Amino acid sequence: MDLPRQFPYNPQWRIILFGLAFGGAFLLLGIIHWVFLAFGVLFVAPALLLAVRRLAFPKFLQVGKDSLSVPKGFSRTWVAKISYADIENGWETVHGPTSATLHLRVKGRTVEISSIMLPDMASYVAVRDFVKSCFIQKEKPNQPIEAGKYCFRCSYEGNGEIYDSNGGVLWRFKTLHKRPHYPYGLFRLPDFVVHDNSDKEQFRIILERKWALGQFMMLEDGLPVCTINQRSFLRNKFTLNFTGGQKWVFRMPLFTVIFGGLSETGEKIRVRVRTHNLWYVLIDTNADSAQLAVALAFIHRERLRFN
């Protein structure tokens, strides 16, 4: 890439035009019922705001030799200058064939570079590859692994990893789609499969009952070890019944980033949501197990699936 270089960083016209066209259709149907009018406003108003942002406040993502400047904030109007030397970590979240986000961890905060704000996917790939080549992921001190302390990272497509307290990958998981598509689960819900670092399958979670509230079975080496049940139509409460007798209730209250679970014997699970795709999890050490960690990773996938 020739440096320095700048890329327009604005809402794409295709998204704005889609909102105007889709919302306009609902506005026309407003003569039938006010509900259509309300839906139309929900699409047209944000599309108009995005158009104003693009025309009146155009922004650029600037890539230099030692740093880059990225528009951030709700409307991407504030510009953050980031030195490559300050980048601690980076990862990518893929939302589909034409949408992805690069997350950069810088001095305790996260800055995002979104493909839908750049002119095209080729520009995003060029920026992503260059930025990744300019920083070295910081190695963490050699500290003992803390039992019960995990980090879950999951994409909206249902693929991700479970990390230990030092940031090492313990397990990788994926949702076995017959063909890449999203959303999924409307007619058939693919299996959720967990592999270790040698790519050997360790766990598989399958759908047993879909209507009205889902019921899932976790298999380890082909044998059932846990039943996972949805207990709310809002998909924010689950029960876990392990074959060893351990039972859990896990709740995800609305409008909060802190979740919790409680076993019949008093052990606790604590979850803090960093982003929708990133959870920090703490399980009481006397209740910590691979089976419980995998069940929570599956619940994380389910929350993203309905998000």
Structure overview:
This protein is α+β, with helices and mostly antiparallel strands and 307 residues long. The chain has 4 helices and 19 strands. It has helices at 13-28, 34-56, 121-134, 290-305, and strands at 5-8, 60-63, 67-72, 78-83, 87-96, 99-106, 109-114, 149-154, 160-163, 169-175, 192-195, 201-209, 215-220, 223-230, 237-242, 247-251, 258-263, 268-275, 278-283. The strands form 3 sheets. A 12-stranded antiparallel beta barrel has the order 8-9-10-11-12-13-14-15-16-17-18-19. A 4-stranded antiparallel beta sheet has the order 1-2-3-4, covered by helices on one side. It has a 3-stranded antiparallel beta sheet with strand order 5-6-7, covered by helices on one side. Helix 1 packs antiparallel against helix 2 (34-56).
